[in-house]
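FORM 12-B: Structure-to-Sequence Request
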């Protein structure tokens, strides 16, 4: 039936509605961008036509509406109901979606034709469907009742004359009917009786499986997690009955793969449903329809909907062998060490064959090295069976926990429990390759290791020139409770596609035993799946029943392939159970009686697989027995060998670390100064912008000033000093990387490491051009995501890979670093002691009281000092360069007050044969302070230059000075305020000494200064409250130095600073000034200070 011109509104509406269907599909499947392309390509000519067009609510998405408005201006409006006739040339968008819009919008459902008729009279016409369940009565939220009618009308038109409809619809109908239109017979029965409505109904059913099939999958091995099957998976919802099962349908769609691929022949409804059930509702639940990229969805659809290959017997034997290893490792250790905590894998033994499959597949795709992070659960099993740490070594650790023998017999650290230790080995793969696996040591703090793993992976990619990110890959394991509960998971996931943090995607495996310690999932997360957080990244999620080992290996293989194909994250969620308590000594029946009564009689996955193989004749019984005997034999042999096993020196030295020293091997400090010519060259490179570049005029001025500093050799400011340190390290072959929030410009607008061309937006980074043809990323400065925990963890992991690099993380303000406290406590301050892994990670924490209130004044210096492991009461034996003291300490805390000293301390990080983390209290107001300047000569290579742990009073050079009535020790920027007050008060008899390195404490230099002023009153001055800042760290050490110098005792030390306080600083500006002035005056005042009470 041809459409009459007089019914233009319906016709147009019909066209638009039908296009709307396609648009919505496009939008749903591939996202807004794809939908916009569709609109641009397919609708533009219609939108520009001078006629009224109605979008009946498909285009409800605000971005689509905004986009249409951009395209068509004010002709587009969005209304709740039609109140007036449509003016020609106007568009009307009205919402209709059932589950998208509030209830009151529902009244709009199905009203289009009626409403339009009332407004436009007989111009509006529609035909009644002859189908048993017309589309017009379907409740689907995107096929509106009227849409079906219009679509049918258009189909009839197309049947009468294919060229009468838009070419895109010609293809659409052709695909749906399997004919080219001209041979159609009345529009209804085309292939096996298929009409457009039928086609749409089948399409909707298929889509429902793709979207929600996982809800029906048999995921829980215990069968306790009873989930309601979504109504949309019921064919009856689309009007299908048993009578339809044998009807044939063609469901090919140009842009799809799998069941919807155009290559499909006519299929009966039964066979379509069968395929869908197999693909989506068996023991794997695929969640991927949230991915907004058509190619990725198609890639997955192809793998999911086309049946998995039947495994060859050899593959089955291999899986069985691997599962036997995974299972017997646990039972063997359980039997040998009945009372030991090992956080066994029982209930998820299929993880072992799964991981091996993953690694094999990754190796086949070109991966050469895998960095692994994982929690306690199953760690020993993974170490032994996957990473291939010698079993005898693991078994030996079950004993008394032998201290390994260091090179000189002492560097053994304080150690850690066996299920936290890291290691690395080369594992042979199925295809005969070798793949390097390193398991990163981790603390008990769940998920904290995740960013460390990706940082290390990124570093490996950098050092191996792995530009495609194919050679090095991260695999991170999680528990169900921690994956959904810990925020650092989200922080880590969000680094995955950032240019300077991307690792080409990680494979995540969740050992989802459906419990967290004693807490059930319903009390530990608000989302249906523990993996839902990953949907934010558009990562595919494969839920798999942990009892089905072949399914587990299949998804692990698919995950590796996905990662290597699309270089983005992917999640495997192994739904399993925990056979015992949280650990082996725990009683699970206390809290999960129902679950554990099922678990008690539940066979393990090996028994299930063995039964299946035997019953189906898939593997011979004697083959099975042979494999089992082999595994048990090896376990017994390793156990015997473990009895006399003495571990070698720790394997902490990877190739890059060869030659680096432990504390018992004294390292020499090299000079940190730089030859004047090099300084000039680097100085030039970092202060000159290309002639054609158009910087902001303020930046131009800054760069000109920097250039002057280098040229004149004086007045070098903080940012220039820092850039000189970075630049000179680069010339010496060291990689430099600075990351953190807004570090490129610098929070305080002082660094301007990257300059933006004001005309074309191009970016120039002078430090990227210090060397001729400098390699990309050799110098990296990068703004990070707004994360501290995640990003600091990342940089830590990065820093551990190669010592010939200066890796820095800067906090926006120092106190924001407390959201990364786990990384400081568990890794940076204690990692070397626990795991013998060194790092020279350098942390810049802006600190200083300048009236900005409680949250922007203090970097919580006291916390970092509290974690220092030197003895406050012992005066150490110090050699000239104090290197031994630095080698023995766990980390360094410094608060430098001159650009030159900052330069030297940064360079010192590299110019020694060991690595130590360094926490720097970074200045704020010193960045522009006129007195906080250095001469270029102070950066030069000379015997006088180098990092000064303590800067003695600049005005007092005598070896002994009886005239000084007070010596004030302080640290940081308060020095400049004290100096100013001293000048104001003409208090020449006060000496001020700056403790630049607070930890390790410069006992020797403090004692030297104490001796220099034998009559002086000893004062510690600080701007922080008494319970904060350096005071509590310095106080006992100052006492020890006084005793050593014969200058009195601890009680003689006086204090000039703020009183103890809960909040780090006042929020009232006047109060701040009053307090600050008061403490500085007290430190300089004529009369002696009172003793501390
Ligand atoms: C950050 C953190 N909080 C608390 C704990 C204490 N804890 C250890 S294991 C555990 C349960 C972990 O549950 P899940 O992530 O599901 O792993 P599972 O033990 O079940 O394998 C808890 C709460 C911890 N280790 N780390
Ligand atoms: Mg759990």
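FORM 12-B RESPONSE
SEQUENCE OUT:
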């Amino acid at each position: 039936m041809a459409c009459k011109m007089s019914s233009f509104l319906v016709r147009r509406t019909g066209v638009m509605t039908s296009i709307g269907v396609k648009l919505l599909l496009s939008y749903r499947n591939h996202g807004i961008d794809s939908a916009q392309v569709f609109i641009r390509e397919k609708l533009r000519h219609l939108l520009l036509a001078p006629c009224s067009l109605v979008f009946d609510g498909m285009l409800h998405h605000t971005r689509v509406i905004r986009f249409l408005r951009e395209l068509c201006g004010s002709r587009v409006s969005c209304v709740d109901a039609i109140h007036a006739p449509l003016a020609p040339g106007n568009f009307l968008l009205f919402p209709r979606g059932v589950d998208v819009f509030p209830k009151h919008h529902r009244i709009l459902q199905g009203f289009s034709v009626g409403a339009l008729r009332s407004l436009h009279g007989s111009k509006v016409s529609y035909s009644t469907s002859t189908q048993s369940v017309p589309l017009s009565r379907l409740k689907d939220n995107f096929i509106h009742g009227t849409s079906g009618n219009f679509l049918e009308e258009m189909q009839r038109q197309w049947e009468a004359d294919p060229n009468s409809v838009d070419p895109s619809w010609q293809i659409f109908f052709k695909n749906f009917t399997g004919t080219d239109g001209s041979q159609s017979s009345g529009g209804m029965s085309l292939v096996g009786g298929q009409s457009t409505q039928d086609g749409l109904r089948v399409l909707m059913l298929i889509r429902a499986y793709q979207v929600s099939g996982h809800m029906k999958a048999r995921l829980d091995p215990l069968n306790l997690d009873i989930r309601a099957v979504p109504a949309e998976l019921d064919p009856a919802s689309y009007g299908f009955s048993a009578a339809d099962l044998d009807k044939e349908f063609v469901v090919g769609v140009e842009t799809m793969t799998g069941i919807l691929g155009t290559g499909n022949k006519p299929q009966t409804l039964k066979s379509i449903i069968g395929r869908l059930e197999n693909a989506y509702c068996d023991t794997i639940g695929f969640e991927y329809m949230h991915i907004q990229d058509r190619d990725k969805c198609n890639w997955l659809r192809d793998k999911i909907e086309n049946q998995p290959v039947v495994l060859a017997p050899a593959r089955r034997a291999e899986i069985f062998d691997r599962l036997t290893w995974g299972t017997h490792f646990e039972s063997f250790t359980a039997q040998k060490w009945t009372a030991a905590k090992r956080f066994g894998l029982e209930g998820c033994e299929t993880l072992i064959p799964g991981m091996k499959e993953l690694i094999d597949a990754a190796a086949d795709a070109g991966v050469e090295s895998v960095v692994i992070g994982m929690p306690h659960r199953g760690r020993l099993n993974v170490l032994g069976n996957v990473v291939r740490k010698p079993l005898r070594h693991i078994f030996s650790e079950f004993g008394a926990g032998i201290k390994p023998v260091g090179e000189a017999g002492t560097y053994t650290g304080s150690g850690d429990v066996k299920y936290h230790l890291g290691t690395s080995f080369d594992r042979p793969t199925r295809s005969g390759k070798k793949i390097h696996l390193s398991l990163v040591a981790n603390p008990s703090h769940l998920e904290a290791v995740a960013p460390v793993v990706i940082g290390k992976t990124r570093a490996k990619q950098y050092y191996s020139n792995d530009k495609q990110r194919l050679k090095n890959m991260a695999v991170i394991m999680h528990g169900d409770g921690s994956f959904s509960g810990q925020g650092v998971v989200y922080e880590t996931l969000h680094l995955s596609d950032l240019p300077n943090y991307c690792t080409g995607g990680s494979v995540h495996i969740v050992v989802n035993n459906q419990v967290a310690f004693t807490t059930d999932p319903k009390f530990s997360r608000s989302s249906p799946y523990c993996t839902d957080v990953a949907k934010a990244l558009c990562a595919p999620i494969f839920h798999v029943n942990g009892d089905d080992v072949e399914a587990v290996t299949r998804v692990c293989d698919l995950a590796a392939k996905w990662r290597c194909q699309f270089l983005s994250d992917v999640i495997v969620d192994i739904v399993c159970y925990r056979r015992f308590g949280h650990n082996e000594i725990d009683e699970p029946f206390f809290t999960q009686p129902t679950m554990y009564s099922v678990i008690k009689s539940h066979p393990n996955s090996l028994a299930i697989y063995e039964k299946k193989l035997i019953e189906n004749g898939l593997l011979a019984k004697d083959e099975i027995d042979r494999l089992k005997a082999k595994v048990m034999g090896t376990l017994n042999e390793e156990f015997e060998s473990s009895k006399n096993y003495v571990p070698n020196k720790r394997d902490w030295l990877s190739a890059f670390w060869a030659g680096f020293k432990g504390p018992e091997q004294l390292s020499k400090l090299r000079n940190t100064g730089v030859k004047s010519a090099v300084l000039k060259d680097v100085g030039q490179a970092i202060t000159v912008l290309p002639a054609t570049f158009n910087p902001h005029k303020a930046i131009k001025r800054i760069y000109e000033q920097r250039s002057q500093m280098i040229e004149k050799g004086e007045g070098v400011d903080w940012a220039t000093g820092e850039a000189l340190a970075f630049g000179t390290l680069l010339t010496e072959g060291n990689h430099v990387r600075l990351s953190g929030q807004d570090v490129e410009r610098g929070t305080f607008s002082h660094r301007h490491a990257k300059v933006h061309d004001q005309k074309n937006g191009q970016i120039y980074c002078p430090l990227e051009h210090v060397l001729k043809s400098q390699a990309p990323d050799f110098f990296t400065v990068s703004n990070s995501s707004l994360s501290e925990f995640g990003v600091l963890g990342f940089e830590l992991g990065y820093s551990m890979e190669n010592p010939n690099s200066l890796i820095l993380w800067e906090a926006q303000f120092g106190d924001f670093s407390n959201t990364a406290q786990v990384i400081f406590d568990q890794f940076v301050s204690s990692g070397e002691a626990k795991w013998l892994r060194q790092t020279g990670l350098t942390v810049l924490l802006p600190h200083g009281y300048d009236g900005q209130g409680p949250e922007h004044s203090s970097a919580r210096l006291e916390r970092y000092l509290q974690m220092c492991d030197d003895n406050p009461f012992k005066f150490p034996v110090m050699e000239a360069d104090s290197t031994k003291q630095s080698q023995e300490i766990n980390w360094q805390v410094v608060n430098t007050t001159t650009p030159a000293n900052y330069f030297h301390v940064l360079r010192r990080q590299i110019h020694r044969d060991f690595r130590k983390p360094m926490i720097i209290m970074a200045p704020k107001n010193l960045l522009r302070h006129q007195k906080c300047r250095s001469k270029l000569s102070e950066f030069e290579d000379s015997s006088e230059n180098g990092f000064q742990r303590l800067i003695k009073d600049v005005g007092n050079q005598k070896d002994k000075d009886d005239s000084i009535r007070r010596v004030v020790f302080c640290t940081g920027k308060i020095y400049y305020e004290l100096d100013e007050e001293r000048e104001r008060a003409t208090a020449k008899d006060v000496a001020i000494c700056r403790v630049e390195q607070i930890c390790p404490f410069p006992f020797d230099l403090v004692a030297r200064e104490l001796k220099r002023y034998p009559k002086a009153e000893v004062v510690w001055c600080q701007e922080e409250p008494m319970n904060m800042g350096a005071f509590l760290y310095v106080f006992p050490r100052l006492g020890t130095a006084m005793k050593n110098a014969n200058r009195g005792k601890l009680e003689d030390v006086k204090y000039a600073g703020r009183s103890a306080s809960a909040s780090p600083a006042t929020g009232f500006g006047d109060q701040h000034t009053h307090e600050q002035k008061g403490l500085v005056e007290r430190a300089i005042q004529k009369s002696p200070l009172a003793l501390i009470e």
